[in-house]
Every structure is written in structure tokens, then in C-alpha cells.
């Protein structure tokens, strides 16, 4: 068996990375959207809003565990794009990562639909609707609350994704208080948890274009129809655009308020208080910027 | 006292391992089924669905802490079987592990029944039933939701157990982002938590043949009768068969998408980013595959 | 300031340890009983049963952080007693530890009563009762559910405390899968959490004689009267006696099923997989038994 | 991009620290008050009291990750003041830290108001009130429960902040059981969680003058008016004064009961059981007191 498997060995690094990003986002959405499906179709008897927050948080955690050693576990086009802007990820790889991420989310949405087919059918009476008492489109992608204005929604997603990037960059910044080796996935999951707890009610905290687009396309194809793009006054593009803007805003905030002020390279030794991390990672001699070690 | 205890020392490794698997599953089910008993008999006043998810998750965590250093803490025949298929656990030990696991689950179910005897009696009015308003068989083993078709149930268990194996293999893969030494039990518990949160409502996320069979046999003997096998259209075999299939599917997915593409052995040093793990475990010089270090 | 403080330096080791046990249990009960007070007096609007479980769990965690480096953080007479029976703690120190633990719990109960005085007064209308719709004695100590027989209660506490000891001994067993250095308090807290989730509804999971006796004596003095000893058919002695029995049972189970079968000392190196722990603790050359390193 | 950013490099250490304290408190309040806004405006459908506890806890955690490596992450004037009293932080820096903390909280409150503008408007019908059925001032700062007397409120805040300091000092005390390197932020967050669970119902557990004052000033300016200072019988000054008193009380308790009794410096080696921590931090040769290494 082991030998058979080894024949499938792929050497191309980009292909490996795309596979890892694909599986990472797949796991993220499988658990995330799965928890929404469970809460929705059980009518809050087998879970509550906090379960959904935990589903996406732990989905993120295990999505990262599955992929981080191979691809750096961006799992989010807004993250990949921010790293490109900051010059820490190559623009040429960006489209490959993004396509893999969206495709992973799409396939995971299909898996959730398969696993919850009976439940969704019974809950909705076979009517796959985007709004109304037994709407089920929200299992897959995000929709704004009735009260939310378009600008309110854009601001909501910009702030949410900016908060994500500030925290994630801090967790990976070896000159600040980095997460312990091997626990980064748990802590990034905790960031997603707290964003869901504190910024989830306006529009469902997409904070990730792939998380929203992949499942939305699936629900469009799978029977919810073109209404998934029309609902909320054509909401669908906000989680794609505003999250990318927010990612950049958050990266700039962390860089300008914290990272650029770190002591210069030759003083690194004095400042860095986490000696273990120092020894274990093969950091380049230049200033190690957050995310740099995993995301070339 | 210490001397008296030392007289009980057993040298046979397989016996030790079976004892460890037995106690591990015992702890898992004691806490897991105990939490269902608490929520059921207190009629949701002393817990909620999330408590049950936490009960099985932390049950798994401490089941692993109790046994991992001795037996590798499979605690699940679907895990043991998957490792055999992948050539990482010996077929000859498999039946011993499985019997120990099922027996641990059986005895734990008996303990839960003992601890909750008064509560179950009062809640059910002394009628031990499998269905109906005061059904209590669900304390011990899983039953499908009314709406679930047989194929839906099989798909549900295959997906759930596959997700378990993908995550667990990633957590143990030293060439990806392995869990920190000593925290693997917590993270595997977190996998069980998120599966319960996102895949629990269809059929109670058995994802473990021993977890389901042991307590089901106990409830059959202890007064719930043969109905425990008849209920849900003869549901009982699904958590046994579908979970094993799912375990294999998940193992193959992780191997094919991630593990087989890891750089070859002589490049290991360059790739592995977790130096601590490197030093502390006596890994063989050959490629260390996930689970290999604990499971022979 | 620093100089002034240093004048209070005490050299006697036993006194230091007693102070640490005192403060540890104080923190445990302050958070634990505090959470019951919050849920009770807010009538479940500012918390739920799970909050109480978390309150005692995190109370245990921080009680241990506050004391472990000094006294080993037993925080529980049933733990101290079990260690004496196993020959790992001195009988002569036992009474000092127990008195400190009970006194810490007593004073913490008084603090909770002080902090929640207005709330308890408003909730109960000034009537401090042990039973009835606005009973508040349950804030301080445990009482059995109406349906629970005396033997049922004894069995409940024996099983609960046995489960505690099995898990705690496993977490400290360097030849199994020990908790990472510095995270033992979190994991012992998690044991208390899962016991509360899975064994809390019968009689409130005392699993600790000091946790129950100290606050009960306080509530007797503070206005709830002698009824705190009479309620539940004279329940008060069960959390004292059954927990000690349970502690011993659990210790024996872990020793007989797991610990005594560990390879003999000269083989330790081969077996122990956690090299870090090895280096950091000054283990004696003899077989290191669980708890031994902290509890002499 | 990287070059452009590096031009903004600031060398003055105090300015850096103030920026870090600012961003740390900003993150704390953004998540903390955000979770209150979510629970309030969704009328408990997208969260519950436990969500608010988690929001402030994880807000604290990531506020610390964002700032600890630069400023020591006090994030709380009561903490800074206590350290000054104990001679571990300089009085001259105190006002700069406090102003940065309050300003961070103010700006975060403004961000929450921006993000939840539509939601608050819809929930309150456009009436920004401090009390009544659709009061929304509680999103920003704390108000006492109706039953709470002034002295009860003072006692509540003194006990809460004292508990915070006892636990935080223990977590940083290298001669006790210090939190593992890199996980201090998580554990301090857990302290805030358990305080919210066990001491939150009386007056909303401010336990931090900056957390309360900054958002209160914002709500005063932003439309809730001078009533935010008048409500609760002029409650506003209690979270400022009582928390500072409580911080000092807690520091003294930990010092007097635990820290001063640690063995003298030359015996440090024998006592300290956490060798890893030893090696990784450049501790001065004198006795390392809690917080000293980060908060000079």
C-alpha cells in the first residue's frame, strides 16, 4: 500500500501547494458550513449561534494543520493578496492559490449539501430558497441582515478582515509575541472565533472571498438559483471586494503601528524573547517579517 | 503499597497495550455517554447539545492521555483498521485492540447506567425505551434522525469518519504542521468537538465502531431489549461498517493530497520546520509517516 | 515597597505550602462558587449550567497556577489522601494541607457572599433558604437531586472522584503522555470541566471534600442555619467520605491498569518519548511515579 | 512597499510602547464591546452572555499578542499602577501608558459604533438611551445592576480586579508555575473569561479603568449624552477608582502569600522547575519578580 501511494508522488512545488490550499479550505468549509447546516436544519436544537462560530473557528484550525507545512495555509485570497502587496508572496502564484481556495470551498459546499441532503429536504419541504422562514441558502454563503445598508456592509467586512489580518500578523511576528510553534493553527482559529462572536450579526462574517464565493456558486448551480447573487441588493460582491480591501488595511495598520518599529536586524538578538523559535526555524539572516518564513 | 502494586507488573507488551486501549475507551465513553445522560435526564437544564459535544471531545482527550504512551491511543477500530491498510499497524494485533476497545466501551456504558440509574429511572418512569418522548437508549448508542435515509446515514458516517482521519493524520504528520508534543490529545479532542458541532445532527456522529457497539450491546442486555438493534430500520450496523469505510477514505485522501508529496527522506531536514519534535522522538531514519512513531 | 515585602519572607517550607494550598483553594472557590452565585441570582440570564462548569474548571486551573510551584497544588483532600496511601505524600503533612484547603474554601465562600450580598438579598427577598424556589444555599455547597438515593449519591461521588484521579495521574505520568510543562493546570481544569459536564446533574460534582465542607460551614454560620447539614437526608457527609474513597479507587485503577506495567527504570530511556520533560525536571534515578516530582 | 514602510520606523522606545498599548487596548475593546453590540442588537439570537465573556477574553488575548513583545501588554491602568507601586514600572511612563490605553479604548468604541451603526439604529429606533428596554449605552461601558448599592459596587470591582492581579502575577512568576512562553496571552484571556463568568452580573466586570472610561467618553460625545455619567447614581467613577484599589490589593495578596516566600536567589536553581523558560529569557541575575522581565 505504502509503495502504491508513493508512486503518486508529485515533485512540482506549486502543485503541492495548490493541493494543500485546496484541502485546507475544503476542511474549513466542511466544518464551517456543516455547522450552519446542523443549526439551521435542527432548528437550533442541536447547536446555537456559538456552535457556528466554533465550527468556522475549528474548521480554520484544522484547515491550517492540514496545509501549513506545505503551502503556508493562507486559505483566504484576502490573506494571499495582502502578502503580495507587502511583497511577501509572489504575484505569479497568487492566481493559482486563489483558484485552489475557491475550488476547495466549492467542493466542500457540495459535500455539505450531500451530507445534509435529507435534512435540508425535510427542513425546507424541498423548496431551496434564499429568503423566507425556511431559507437554506445561508448554509452556504453569507447574506446581510435586513437592516444593513450597502455601505454598512462594506464597512463591516473591511473592519472584520482588517481585524483578522492584524491578529494573524501579530501571531506570526517573531519579534513580538509569536504563537508557540505548532499552536498557530489553534490561535488563528481563535481569531476567527472572536470575529464571529463580535462581528458576526451584521452580515455573517465572510472575511474570506473564497469562503463566500465557492459555496455561493455551488448553491447557484445546485438549485437555489440566480437569487443567491441577487439577494441583499446584489450583496455577493461585497464579501469579495471589501474583504480584500480590509486585508490590506489590516496589514498596513499592523505594519505601521507595530512591525516597522521593531529594532533593526543587528539588534534582533537583544529583542527577541522567544529563543526556542529562534533555534528551530531556519530563518534567513535578514529581518524576518511576519508570514515571511512560510510564505516565501 | 508501592511494592504491592509493583508485584502486578505485566511484561507482555500486547497485554499492556490492550489494557491501555481498554482504559482509554472506557474514559472516552464514561465522559461522552455520561454527558448525554446528564443532558437527557435533566431535560436540558444541566447542559445542552454543546455539552454533549464537549463531553465526547474531552472524553477523547483524556482517553488519549490515559493510553497514548502505552498503546498509541487508537481508541477506535476504524483508526486501527486504517493504519493496518496503510501498513502502519500489524494485522495480528488488530483483533486484540478491537476487542479491548469494544469491551472498554461496554463497561463504561454499564458505569454510566450505574451512576445515572436513579436519574434514568425517574426520567423515564422506569420504562427503558428506544423511542418516544422519554426514550433513553440514545444515552448509550447512536440512532438516526427520523428524516434520514439509509444511504444518507451511510454517507453521513463515511464523511464524518473520513474527516476525522484526515485531521488526525495531519496532526501527527511531522513533515506538515504537527501538534506540539503533549498536546496531541487536546487537538484530537478538538477534532471530535468540531465533528460533533458540524456533523452531529443526522445520526449522532458515532465515527467509531467501538463507541457505538459496546454501549449498544450493554443497552440490549440491560433492559432496552432487542429494539436497540431494530430501531432506525436496523441502523446498528451502519456505525460499524460505514465508519471503517470512512476511515479508509480519509486516510487515502490525506495520503494522496498531502503526505505522498512530501520531499524525499534526504531532504527531510530542509523541510521539517519543527526542530523540537525532531530531537525529542527517536524517529527511524526512514521517512516518518503519520502515526508511525506511536503505532509501530 | 519591594524591600518591605521581603521582610515578610517565611523560610519554613510547610508554612509556605499551607499558604499556597490556602490561596489555591481560595481562587478555586472564588471563581467556582462565584459562577454559581451569578447564574442563580441572575436567574440564568447572565450564565447557564455550562458557565458553572467553566467557573469551577478555570477556578481549578488558576488555583493550580497560583500554588503548584510551591505546594504541588493538591487543592483537594481526596488527592492528598490518595497520595499518602500510595506512599507519595507524607502522612504528617496531610492534616496541615487539609486544614489549609478547607480554610481557603471557607474564606472564599465568605468573599462570594460579600460580593453577591446585594444580589442574594434581592433574589431571595432576604430569606436565606436551603430549598424552595429561591433557595441560595446551593451557591456554596452541593445538594443531591430530589430523585437521588443515598447509595446513588455515594456511587456518584465515588465514580466522579475516581475519574478525576485517573485523569490527573495520567497527566502527570512522565512515562505515558504527560501534559506539557506549564499546561498541567489547564488540563486538570479540563478534567474538572468534563466531570461537570458529564457527572454534574446528580449531586453537583463536589469531588473534593474541602470544596464542599468549607463553604457549607460558612453558609451554616452566615444565616442558612443547621438546615445545610440536614438537607438531602443528611447529605453533607457524602461529599467528604465518598470522594476520599473515590480518590483511592481511581488511583488504584490507574496504577493497576497503566502505571505498574511501565518498563523498569533501566529501560526508561527507551520508552519515554518526551525528551524535553526529561531534561527539565530533576527526576530521581528511581522510577518516577506520577505526582512524585511535585509532591515529594 | 517594504521599503516605504521602513521609512516610518520610529526609534523612541516610549513612543513605540505607547503605540503598542494603544493597539492592544483597541483590539481588546473592538472584540469586547463588539460582542456586546452583537448580543444586544441581535436580541440574544446571535450570541448569549457567554459570548460576551468570550469576546472580552479573546479580545484580551489578541490585544496582548499584538503588544506584549513591545510594551509588555499592560492594557490596563490598574495593572500599570500596581506595577508602579511595587517598584516594577516607572512612574514617569505611567501617564503615557494610561493615556494610550484610554485613547485606544475610545477609538475602538468609535469603531464598534461605526460597524454597528445600522444595527444600533434599528434596534433602538434611533433613540440612544442609557436605560430602558432598548438601552444601548451598555454596549460601550459598564452600569451597575438595579439592586447594587454603591458600596456593593465598589467591593465588586475591588474583588474582581484583585482576582485579576493575583492570577496574572502567578502566570508570570517564573519561580511558581509560569505560563508556557507564547501562551501567556491565552491564559490571561482565560482569567478575564472566568472573571466574566463568576463576577460579571453585578456591574459588568470593568476591572480596567481604560476599558470603561474610553468608551464612556465616546458614548457621551456620540449621542448618549451626559446621562452616561449620571446613570447608576453617578457610577462612572467606581470602575476607575475601585479597580485601581483592587489591583493594588491583589498584588499585595500575591506578594504576601506566595511571592515573597520564594527561596532566595542563590537557591533559585534548585526550585525553578521550568528549565526551558530559564534558558530562553535573558533574565537579570537578581531575583526575577513577576512581570519584571517585560515591564522593566
From TrEMBL, chains A, B, C, D:
Main location: membrane
SUPFAM superfamilies on file: Aquaporin-like
Reaction catalysed by this enzyme: H2O(in) = H2O(out); glycerol(in) = glycerol(out); urea(in) = urea(out)
GO cellular component labels: basolateral plasma membrane
PROSITE patterns per record: MIP, PROKAR_LIPOPROTEIN
Annotated compartments: Membrane
Membrane topology listed for this record: Multi-pass membrane protein
Residue ranges the record marks as coiled coil: none
Record's keyword terms, sorted: Membrane, Transmembrane, Transmembrane helix, Transport
Keyword Magnesium found: no
GO molecular function terms noted in the UniProt entry: glycerol channel activity; urea transmembrane transporter activity; water channel activity
Pfam families: MIP
Listed transmembrane segments: 20-37, 49-66, 96-117, 150-174, 186-207, 236-260
Family membership noted in the UniProt record: Belongs to the MIP/aquaporin (TC 1.A.8) family.
Protein name: Aquaporin 10b
